[in-house]
Design goal:
Belongs to the NrdR family. The protein has about 150 residues and is α+β, with helices and mostly antiparallel strands. The protein is built from 5 helices and 6 strands. The chain has 2 domains: about 35 residues; about 100 residues.
């Protein structure tokens, strides 16, 4: 691999370790000419996963976009970022294991809500209000009643 500093064609690997539950490898490298050290990541090249939105438009699945939505829902809540990263990876893994090239945004939203309700109920209601586009306070109240009923059943 070329050195990003001097563009010499040969570097050596100093350290290599699995990350993202073994789905990627992080490598520390050093240029054999100038001694510059840098990090590279190796991942399996995956077939793009396309999300079909409500209005019929399509866009490539973005782990980062999903994570941003989760962080927004969990703002000022006692939820660890690691839990959200795990949830994001779990959802992406489940989607890719379906073996299809397109998924509905509705399915992703349902998967998020199912998992988020067990992590933090306030974050669940926040996410749900945006995802389901609550029109007024009565819809909020209905959702809260459903959440309370679900808790009582468990």
């Amino acid at each position: 691999m070329k050195c990003p500093n001097c563009h010499y064609k040969s570097t050596k690997v100093l350290d290599s370790r699995p990350i993202e539950e073994g789905q990627a490898i992080r490598r520390r490298r050093e240029c054999e000419q100038c001694g510059f050290r840098f990090t590279t990541f190796e991942r399996i090249e995956e077939v793009p996963l396309i999300v079909v939105k409500k209005e019929g438009t399509r866009e490539e699945f973005s782990r980062e976009k999903l994570m941003r939505g989760l962080i927004r829902a969990c703002e000022k809540r006692p939820v660890a970022v690691e839990d959200l990263e795990g949830l994001t990876l779990d959802i992406e893994k489940e989607l890719r294991n379906r073996g299809v090239s397109e998924v509905l945004s509705k399915d992703i939203g349902e998967m998020v809500m199912e998992r988020l309700s067990s992590i933090d109920e306030v974050a669940y209601v926040r996410f749900s209000s945006v995802y389901r586009q609550f029109k007024d306070i009565n819809v909020f109240i209905d959702e809260l009643k459903e959440l309370i009923k679900h808790d009582e059943d468990e």
